[in-house]
Amino acid sequence: MEFTFDLNTIWFILIGVLLTGYAILDGFDLGVGALHLLVKDDTERRIMLNSIGPVWDGNEVWLVTGGGALFAAFPHVYATVFSGFYTAFMLLLFGLIFRAVAIEFRSKEKMKWWRNMWDTAFCVSSILIAFLMGVALGNLIAGIPLDAEKEFAGSFLSLINPYTIMVGITTVALFMMHGSIYAVMKTEGSLQSKIRGWVNNTIIFFVICYVTTTMYTLIYYPHMVQHFKEQPLFFVVAILNMLAIANIPREIFHKRDFLAFLSSCASIAALLILFAIGLFPNIVLSNPNPEFSLNIYNAASSQKTLNIMLIVAAIGVPFVLAYTISIYWVFRGKVKLDNMSY
Fold first, then answer.
1. Would you place residue 285 in the very low, low, confident or very high pLDDT band (cuts 50, 70, 90)?
2. Region for residue 195 given its phi and psi (left: phi exceeds 0; alpha: psi -120 to 50; beta: otherwise)
3. pTM value surpassing 0.90
4. Most CB contacts within 10 A, which of 34, 264, 276, 333?
5. pLDDT in tens, 200-246
6. Is 25 within 8 Å of 264 (Cβ atoms)?
7. How far is CA 25 from CA 13, 272, 313, in A?
8. 120 pLDDT tier (thresholds 50, 70, 90)
9. Long-range contact set of residues 287-292: C-beta below 8 Å, sequence gap at least 24
């Protein structure tokens, strides 16, 4: 594995950090949405909604920032992926819009059918978003057909296969585990006890999916472990990932909910680091013609552009961090319903 710490590599890492921030932050509110219909009482459903109410839209800033950075730093990747995954991205946007509408409209009327309709829309769109993100990730691991001009040469249906579906289900399971831990932190009383009982089930569901997907990857996509064979030190990340997952039920058992949530965040970060190590230096792997792959050099903007962007990022990212931290600090603690609640 040849590693040069140049501007291209720095931007590969920075975009990875932004998308990891998105996965951690929006991951728990998508997970809360996926679990939403398991709660039957209207007041309890309002508490679930309001646990993510002040933060869900701010979490999506990280996705917009990551997408913008990808467009500016690696425009060929942006063009190829967004044109190749056009139908999938339209479905993703539909899910994001419908989910936002469901959150805003759900409590505008008191009729039971009205609230059930938007509750269902909220849950289904949350699962759909998580699933599509997993499918996209699965395609980046398996590779997509690119021609000599590095243009997508497949179809929407060619993006759907058993492996990408499996990665999609694993992503849903991961976010359900992450969301259930967050919901435990934000609730109290009988609702908290009920959700606390879900955590171990979501962990078991995720671990089964994770082990199955990992075995599938090792057997059919060995290129993802090539760097680990060359640099065994990378296995430390895999070990830390397993320790973080194993620590969650222990912290939940001792009712150290915040530490369990931090372990869940660490497991998501470690998973994405493993993915990035396996993929580097490629960003979009071409299958079956690896020589047509888009990597951090043949898909990048000029060095001058990358340099200017780095200066802009050094100024802008602290503001995003400050905004995120201040919102979570202001709305810390358990959820209390009032007239302004959803």
1. very high
2. alpha
3. yes
4. 264
5. 999 999 999 999 999 999 999 999 999 999 999 999 999 999 999 99
6. no
7. 18, 14, 20
8. very high
9. 287/142, 287/143, 287/144, 287/145, 288/143, 288/145, 289/145, 289/146, 290/143, 292/146, 292/147, 292/148, 292/150
**Are the beta carbons of 337 and 50 closer than 8 angstroms?**
yes
Give the CA dihedral 248, 252, 255, 261, nearest 10 degrees: 50
Tokens representing 161 are: 């296969």
Residue that wins the pLDDT comparison between 75 and 85: 75
> Do residues 31 and 67 lie in contact, with contact meaning Cβ atoms separated by under 8 Å?
no
State the CB neighbour count (10 A cutoff) for residue 87.
Answer: 12
Residue whose tokens read 């499996």: 166
Burial 260-275 (b: 16+ CB within 10 A, else e): bbbbbbbbbbbbbbbb
Taking alpha carbons only, the member of 175, 180, 192 closest to residue 137 is 175
Give the C-alpha separation, 45 to 106, whole Å: 10
CB 279 within 8 A of CB 293: no
pLDDT reading at 1 higher than 70? no
Residue 99 · residue 122 · CB < 8 Å: yes
Distance CA 246, CA 203 (A): 9
Rg (CA), the chain: 20
Rounded to whole angstroms, how far apart are CA atoms 264 and 181?
8
